[in-house]
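User: Please run a holo structure prediction.
Assistant: Happy to. Please share the sequence and the ligand.
User: Here you go; the ligand is heme C.
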Amino acid sequence: MKTILSAVIVLLFGLQATVAQAADAYVPKVYGKKGYVWDEMTPERVQVLKQKGDPVNGKEAFRGCQGCHKADAAGVREGVYPRLTGQHASVLIKQITEIRAGIRKNPKMLPFVQDPAISVQEIGDIAEYLSTLTSYRENGKGPEDLSAKGEKLFMTNKCYTCHGKHGEGNAEKSYPAVAAQHYGYLIREMNLIRTGVRGNSNPDMVKAIAKFKQSDMDAVADYLSRLPDYRTLH
Ligand code: HEC
Ligand code: HEC
């Protein structure tokens, strides 16, 4: 009996060590640090992508997000809170899981998306729900129409190769849609990505935007904010 008991104890300790090892194995890397690979899949993101999102439960789970992103998920015009409607589910999942993993820095939002506020299943549910939303308030635009200059910069600097000619992004590659997003948010993100502060910067994008002056970013943001939601194009 005693030997069986000690065998069980040894087995349990062994299991515990294996679990601890598995949890330790994943170390998130951020932009600018050694070993950073853009779009490296976190174990959690792999899990979310395997599941099927349930939009009905997603709507329920989104209640905890409404204080900032608002009930219609259109955020606020000043751009403090981004519009989540019109964004690809794959991009939403990438952002939420990377914020949870500490790759994308977002201390304000973290408590609301961390366990237990939402579960791994609910990440996919919310993304699925948001991608079904079609109506939203008008987004924030720049103070003056700079879209001619902005469009030129967007094309000559090859931003469109990732974000699409209509700012529609690329769901498969997790490149965000940037059309019809709030002006203020677009400017902030370009700065955060360029300086690496956002944590999940795409190195090729950093190169593409490296020579931009602040006035160039203002013009591109204004241009993108005036584009229609890509889903209204077809
Ligand atoms: C306390 C306010 C707050 C709450 C609550 C909140 N968020 Fe956010 N969220 C933000 C802010 C601020 C940003 C933009 C951060 C930045 O500038 O990088 C953001 C960004 C995001 C983004 C990235 C959008 C993009 O275009 O890259 C997603 C996705 C998101 N939030 C989803 C959610 C979900 C889902 C919930 C609820 C479970 C939630 N948020 C709750 C404040 C909040
Ligand atoms: C190699 C592909 C690529 C190129 C080229 C590129 N981007 Fe990006 N961009 C991305 C990715 C990827 C993200 C999101 C980062 C992440 O989470 O992985 C992003 C994010 C953004 C965002 C923030 C969107 C959001 O919802 O948070 C803006 C604005 C933006 N890019 C503008 C530009 C502009 C302007 C250019 C050209 C000067 C450009 N990008 C070139 C891939 C690219």
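The mean pLDDT is 91.
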